Amino acid sequence: MIRKKLFTTMGILGLCTALAMPAYAAETASQAETHHHDQAISGFIDYEEMQKTLLQIEKTSKGLVEVDVAGQSFEGRDIFTARVGTGDKVILIQSEIHGNEKTGTVALLNLLKELSNNSKQSQAIREEVTLVVMPQMNPDASVADKRANSMTWADVVADFPQLAGAEPAWNYYDDRVIQSYDYAANPGFDVNRDFNPDFDYVPEADDFPGSSNDPGWFITPEAQTSRDVYTALQEEFGNVDVFIDLHHQGKYYVAGTDNPVTLSLSAQFVPDPSTPEGAEYAEYADTYNYDFSRQLNVAAYESLQSHGNSVFSNISLYSQGLDLPGTALASYALNGSGTVLFEVRGQTQMMGHKEKGKLVKAVERGLTGIIEAVADGSVETLDPEVYETIPTTAYRPADL
User: What is the pTM of this model?
Assistant: First the structure.
């Protein structure tokens, strides 16, 4: 059965930063959200199916997988976690913080099935690792097949009266945003900008509207739930060793080639707090571990490359030099987690069933490479400088 687990709210945190061109660089109000209803999401698992699948996995696992309700979305849909393993190395993975980026959810459900089987490898991983996944963590957006959630600025002010008179957050999608989805009629927030490295932050009017290189505010219930899952794991284990966020991007190329990128990876979302460039984050210098994040990315990259010239080829490094403290990746990295961004090629409207299957497998293979390397400790032997040799992502505006 699904148990309601209400995580303790530790303050109200902040909303912030944006992904860009590619998705984590600076988004603008006129950036197009390619929407999709022809191929659409029929080939992907929907919210109701996801719940049924989680329950089935929990049942067939005979107690190895524990499914909980961690919180609710703005529209009242349950946000789920599924947990497998009893090890002291903690890995947290979330998908569909943008509701039209769906391959990650399929990959996570497949991963849960694999890790709850009786193979010796799965048993060994479970002994070393506690894996917690949050599939479709922005369910309102998932159901509506859109990027943003369904919360209005008026709803925010109702929850936080001190914001009355403040300018709406910069990542609020309304009539200022020109996209194929009608945000003028159905506004909402890009939840992936609603994070703050200070988990006790309380929203202040002076911090709005903010910008992509400012921390966010945790004003959306979806981001609050992610934070509460994270902080509960911190309290239980002392640290969340690894955090992975699963996304989609547009059509990009491996730099210097004509090869479309299958999957981009990244370990960098804020400047290193121990450097002059990252001086504003100096209070996190003792917890930030960029080398470990790079080792995790190398583990994923080498796992994918080990399969040779196949669907796992054409892996690139996402845009670097970013300063996005309002993303979950940046906020959790500053608080001690090794972090990995996955960005698979294309939005769901671009995918037929064959393409979808290939990209899901690429995500699964990359995730498995990380989990296995963490479980057996081999990630610690990887040279973080290999990260700097991964080919970069090139952007071709004419092809988008």
Answer: 0.90
